[in-house]
UniProtKB/TrEMBL annotation:
Keywords: Signal. Residues 1-21 form the signal peptide. Pfam families: Bact_surface_Ig-like. It comes from the Bacteria. This is DUF5011 domain-containing protein. Residues 34-112 form the Pesticidal crystal protein Cry22Aa Ig-like domain. The keyword Cell wall biogenesis/degradation does not apply. Coiled coil: none annotated.
Amino acid sequence: MKRMKSVWALLLCLTMVLSLAACGQSAENTAAPEISGVADQSVPVGTEFDAMAGVTATDAEDGDLTAQIVVTSLPELTFSNGKATPDAPGSYELTYTVTDKGGLEAKAYATLTVTRQTGEATVLQQMDFATPESQDSHGWTAHIAEGVDATGEQKEGAFVFTIADPGQGDGDIQLVKSGVTLKAADYRVKVWAKADTPTYAHLLARNENAEEWETFGGAYNLPIGTEIAPLELNFTSPGEGSAELMLNLGKITPNPDNPDDTTPANVTVTIDKIEFYEITGNETQTPVYTADFADAAAAALTAGDGASGTATVADGAATFQIDAYPSEGGVWSVKADLALPGVTVEAGEKYYYTMTVTAASDQSGECLVESAAQADAARANFNSLTLKAGEETVVSNVFTAESAVEDPVIRLQVGAPADGVTANTLTVTSLEFGKVEGDLETAKTIDAFGASIAASADPNLLWTTYNGTDEDNDLGVGTIWTQDGSLFYRIDQGGNVDWHNKLIFGHGENPLTLPADNYFTIEITGKASQPVSCGFFLNPMGGWDPRISESIDFTTEEQTFTFKTTDTLIMDMDFEMLFQFGSADTAALGSVTIEISDITIYQESVV
């Protein structure tokens, strides 16, 4: 009889479980509640703060649990009905906790910033973006032959030639710089140019000290395409002298047998900058480590922020398999390390590395020489990385170590995928690392036709740019100008990391100085020729400790963005204001122009 009762009890329990399942319910609730609406906030000291404003909690089984939310704070605040009145400035870490009837718990977190009491906001600086009366051409002048329908002038941050008729010869339209001092050295000239219709140019270096026409060298029939790219000339001077540099844009027909292939009429050529290199001395490279990729310790991969992947070593290669990119984060979220066993890097010494890298899909990022354990706290070198799908790329660099590193690795930070890429494989072969000895020196001068804004004595115009190619990185070209009360930054070639395209206020001997005992609000009004995003930073000069670190999404419609500091300064400090646009998305846009019509900085003095 007892056995029968046990069987009936078991059948009854089974029937109840099946009944619950048929009704769409589970025998045991395994879903935790959800808390929504939690966000960081800021209030002045002594002001009541409602931690529950806009916050709710729901549970699939128990419904609305908002009333059961418990808010705690570190440092401690006393909450009554979700409200508290902080009596000391500072940062408070808030924890929201709720538990359902089944004992399942959910938590959410936010930061409350409590500021000191301040007076009314006053304008510290409003930038008017007035146009300078003159712009520095760095000695470059346009020469147009008589009767030729063309103009050459500085405008919109560039030297622009508008050519209706190219004339009869290449020299009928020229950009010329005379009196370039030379010594016994090798020289390189790069003219960064584009055209609205493909055309041609000759780039020459004429010997000004020769009795008759003579050149140190020339580069002929150089194509100028619709995307900005360098036109390059290399030449050697045997001794002291001077040169006249000439970019000839007149009539050029590379192949006389094909007269249709020639300089077109009605073409506009835009030149953003001209780079001039002077190269002296010699150097030798001595390898100190060559990877055979026979040891598993030769490569390692770490992934965070939701990314995952592995590193393997086999058949003389290191392979980094990225199975998933991060859901948030950046290039630093995936670190592919190549070991340098037995190598110690000394600060101030010169080194080189070279390796061959193949990527299954497009990949950009950073190539660093830094400490395996300390990362950027002991970094010897920073460089960018650009890989094309399926192509073998020789990645190399010569650098002077910025820091001493006892446990160096070559670290590829590759956590940012190309558009549409969800996984990737990087294969590294032929890795060599060594020391560089000798007296080889390269001095580089950049004639950037938009940089005259930064040279003005007017503090409202102290803007400049930094672009990746300024330091011979693979990507990043742009220029700035002012017009009709606005500041324009045209990115003619987007870089693949944020610092490849930077718009900067506060630099060199002209920083943005902010006074002590104030909070600051920065209002930025702007738009772009097509949607583009950037990081916005208010950073102290001489280090990296941003007091504002935000993102801006410019669209074709004008918007105003407002950012506030949350700490006061204990002394007057010099800052730089940075707009950093470089990214894989920016690189894919082609040319994009950002127009900033107003920037106003307000200060609120502490009472």
